[in-house]
Amino acid sequence: MPVSTEVERETVERARRGDQQALADIYDWYLPRVYRYVLSRVGNVVEAEDLTEDIFVRMLGAISGHRERNIPFSAWLFRIAHNHIMSYFRKAGSRGTRDILDEAIADSRPDPATAVETRLTMEEVVRATRDLPEAQREVIALRFAVGLSVAETAQVLGKREGNVKALQHKAVARLQRLLGAKPGRLAAEV
Question: Which terminus of the chain has fewer Cβ atoms in its 10 Å neighbourhood, N or C?
């Protein structure tokens, strides 16, 4: 559930002081987005659940020292998530993403034909993203699986906004080629 910047700032400040309800609110607001991001990166529901839990434990341990510094809380939290996932891949000796499991593809529409078509399209996109360079996959995951803005994505990745835009543009163009989409069609849909 999106909240205003002011409500988020106030809630984070209360959480920094140990307010349990504020911590619960942050957890409720960000759990689905963090989980989707982690799942899009590791591709395993059990691992994603464990890593998401670890990320929130790390957030709890670090929130008392969090300072605004013109960086949105979401960027700070997703930086923790990004670093934790990179550490996970280093420890596991893995690189890149694996398959996103069926649970990651949520479709609330009742029409079964539309659901199947959407699932097939998503599976094609997921397979195609495996052929993207790591930096492009990361930008696509943060921008579209999580829904972060260009500015937030840049802050999470420690890159300039122009770099994020260039990575996104290259990734979308490459996905268009890989998926055989007409130029501009995929970009218009995202």
Answer: N
